[in-house]
Amino acid sequence: MIERKESQAAVSIRKCEGYEFAEETLMRISEEIGVSDNFKNKKILLKVSLMLSDIPEKAINTHPEFVRAVIRVCRKLGSSTIYIGESSGAYGFTKEAFRISGAAGGRYRDRGRI
User: Fold this and answer.
1) Would 62 be classed as within a structural domain?
2) Mapping DSSP to helix (H, G, I), strand (E, B) and coil, where does residue 75 land?
3) Dist CA 85 CA 114 (whole Å)
4) Terminus of the chain with fewer CB atoms < 10 Å: N or C?
5) Model confidence at 9, in pLDDT bands (50, 70, 90)?
6) Number of domains in the chain
7) What is the extent of the structural domain holding 76?
């Protein structure tokens, strides 16, 4: 675990070879920077980025596989509820961005209620 003063932010940068390794990498990071206990029984808001209404393969928005990995890690760390939020900037098409990206159709869902 990284030692730091209480007022200091913790930052960790790790290479991840693919989305299939995201969950493992995120778990390792949470342990390294010592935030694992911060999730127990907490409500979590994941702020995704849906800049444009487009499919995940174009890599414009936060990829659904990464969001699912974050959701699984939050659950493993004991989060009580996980929300996904976004406001698509000045363009004002958040609902459309969620629909086209697949997020509104449950693409971000891992299992059960988010």
Assistant:
1) yes
2) helix
3) 12
4) N
5) confident
6) 1
7) 19-101
